[in-house]
Every structure is written in structure tokens, then in C-alpha cells.
Amino acid sequence: MSHAMSGVPVDLLLMLLGDARLPVAGHTQSAGLEPAVQGGLTVGEVPLYISARLSTAVRVEAGTAVVALHHLTRGLPLEPVVSAWAARTPSPALRRTSRTQARALNRLAGRLWPDAEPVARAAAMPGVPRPVASAATAAAVGLDAPSLARLIGYDDVQTVASAALKLLPLDPAVATGWVHDALPAVAAAAESVARLTCPAEIPATAGPQTESWAETHAHSTRRLFSA
Description:
Elements: H1 10-17, H2 33-38, H3 46-55, H4 57-73, H5 79-87, H6 92-112, H7 117-124, H8 130-141, H9 145-167, H10 172-193, H11 208-218
């Protein structure tokens, strides 16, 4: 942990990293909600969509982040982790988006914690995805695996809820309620991957429909979000 972060409570670090205003291009993402809406998803089905992501894409992302954190804190190579993530993320569009987000996160982490070796390792690696960049940030500030996994899940739910406000006729209080109601599932998803240490253990639970929507969306000329 860098000297600048010593003594900072974990809950405050989580609030910082989970803040939608963090300058990592989160406003350009809908966690796949925009193509889902274009495919016919309704307002009433958004909570089901959130739940589906927590049991599929989020487990892949959180599992990857947790394993990457283990490798970073023990000086193990990251390449097997990145390869395992890529094998579990079949959509080229989703892989590109994740790598773009990783660059933004690495840039921010490099500004905030310039002496953090894990951040430098992630930033120097070509094609690093967002969960690995998140793990590098977690390693830099001393977050443990359960906290990192919860952060990944919470961010995904918040991304969907925030995007819904721009895509659907919706009372903001309803979207906040979705996030609140999803918190137990976020905790459960995090718990299911928090003890992983090996790339082969990362869940292979990507959603084929989400992947298909992402590929279609990547070629759309009428969209608000990049993914």
C-alpha cells in the first residue's frame, strides 16, 4: 500500500472507487442494457436483467479480478489470468470495451498512486482487461478479495440502473430501489468467487444473449452508450 493511502478506512476507499463520478468513462457504459432494450427488454424486466448479470458476467469479472489480485500480491504472472478472462468473454466487442475501460482506470490509478507497483504492472501489460486493472488498483490501496468482488458487482448494478434512467421512462427512485434490492445478490456473487486463486477456477458463466447483443450494438450507428 502506498504511504498516501495508509490509515484510510476501507469503506471510504470503496465509496471512492464505487462512485459513478470517477473519471474512468463509466458514463459511456450501460453494462449491455442499451442493446438489451433495443432487443425488447422492458422497464419491468430490468431487475431480472440485473439478476442475470450477477449470475453470469459479474461472476466472470469478479472472479477474474480476485484471481488477478492474488497473482499481483504474490508476484505471479498476469498472462494466465488475462487468457482465462478472454476465453470466458467470447465477444470481441466486450473484450475491446473492457480493455478501453482498463486504460482509463490505469490512467487514474497511476495519477492517484504513482508509486504503486501493481498499477505499473497492469498499465505496462498489453491488452489488460478492466477486472485486472481493478485488481491492480485494489492491490495498490490494500483492498482484500471480498471487498474487490463486491465492488465489481456493485459497479455493474449501478451501471445498469444509471443507464436505465437515460434509456427508459423511469422514476429515479425506482432505479435506486433496484440497486438496494440487488445488494444481497451482489454480496452472494462476491462470496462465491472471493476465495479463488487459480485462473482455471474463474467461472465460465458468460451469457450468450448478452454477447450477441453486444456484437450487434458494436455496429449500431444509433446508440447512447458504447456498450
